[in-house]
Design goal:
The chain has 273 residues and is an alpha+beta fold. Helix content is 26%, strand content 21%. α1 packs across α7. It binds a DNA duplex (14 and 14 nucleotides) through α6.
DNA sequence: ACGGATGTTCGCGC
DNA sequence: CGCGCGAACATCCG
């Protein structure tokens, strides 16, 4: 699921579901989700507490609970927070759950276990190295084209690889990067330090646009499990995942290349090398 | 059946 | 130090 827009959506849902509600019990079988931290701490520490605040930075969620307990959470590739009724059947691959007094169960499902949950002190969350090393967040901080230009000028990496570097801009993944570069008409393999000011401004606009677009796809927080979702739903993105299909702008056949180990779709006509 | 997938991290080598 | 590359993680879907 997760790039910045999906994580932002998860943040809004979790605030709505958890804020101010007392957690009765917490469950988390030992899995890789808790790597680098104590799985037992989740079950032990959360009962009795309430969510006081929740912030998103890039693809990370930072949750502050009463009594200075904090969670750092990342959705990895297949992570998803959801809410179901207490007696409702639980989906597969649930890695952590929070039982609320009369508001059902909030759970974290993650088949591939690429996500992460770590228990910390709440007042330490922003000082964690994962969070400190993030670049500006497009929604929280906005995108300053001059600062982005400065950052891109310092590397010869492909511009697509550079904007997916979480230290350059926080939250951009393969989908947003692919569609943003298409909007900006910039070839994904262009060395980052060759972009001029005008192109970086177009790129900043493209990133904003792809984030807003994807955010708009999210709909409302589902209260109940919306299980049989997406399967069969069409790919909603602009050119991501559409190699071989016609460019939505000029109908040229979209191509794909590999950059930094990730598939990059682009239009050879609209995004010339 | 095979290949690829919205992410991060680590080790290796130049 | 910068950077590319492959691997690893575990499961699902077309």
């Amino acid at each position: 699921m997760p790039e910045l827009p999906e994580v932002e959506f998860a943040a809004r849902c979790l605030r709505r579901w958890l804020k101010g509600k007392r957690i009765e019990a917490a469950e988390a079988p030992p899995t890789r989700i808790f790597r680098g931290s104590d799985a037992g701490a989740f079950e032990r520490e959360l009962p009795g507490r309430k969510l006081e605040w929740l912030e998103r930075r890039g693809k990370y969620l930072l949750l502050g609970f009463s009594g200075n307990l904090g969670l750092l959470a990342h959705l990895g590739m297949t992570g998803k927070w959801m809410r179901i009724g207490r007696t409702q059947e639980r989906p597969s691959h649930v890695r952590a759950s929070l039982l609320l007094a009369r508001d059902g169960v909030v759970l974290y499902r993650d088949p591939r276990l690429f996500g992460r949950i770590a228990v910390h002190r709440a007042d330490e969350l922003f000082t964690l190295p994962e969070v400190r090393s993030l670049g500006p967040d497009p929604l929280v901080d906005g995108i300053d084209p001059a600062a982005l230009h400065e950052r891109l000028r310092r590397t010869r990496r492909a511009v697509k690889v550079a904007i997916m570097d979480q230290a350059v801009i926080a939250g951009i993944g393969n989908i947003q990067a692919t569609d943003a570069l298409f909007h900006a008409r910039i070839h994904p393999a262009r060395p980052a330090d060759t972009l001029d000011r005008r192109e970086v401004e177009a790129l900043a606009d493209g990133i904003r646009r792809s984030i807003e677009y994807t955010l708009g796809l999210q709909g409302e927080c589902e209260d109940e499990i919306e299980y049989v979702e997406e399967s069969g739903a069409a790919n909603p993105f602009v050119i991501y995942g559409r190699a071989g299909h016609p460019c939505p702008r000029c109908t040229t056949r979209l191509e794909k290349i590999d950059l930094g180990g990730r598939t990059s779709v682009f239009c050879p006509h609209c995004q010339p090398a």
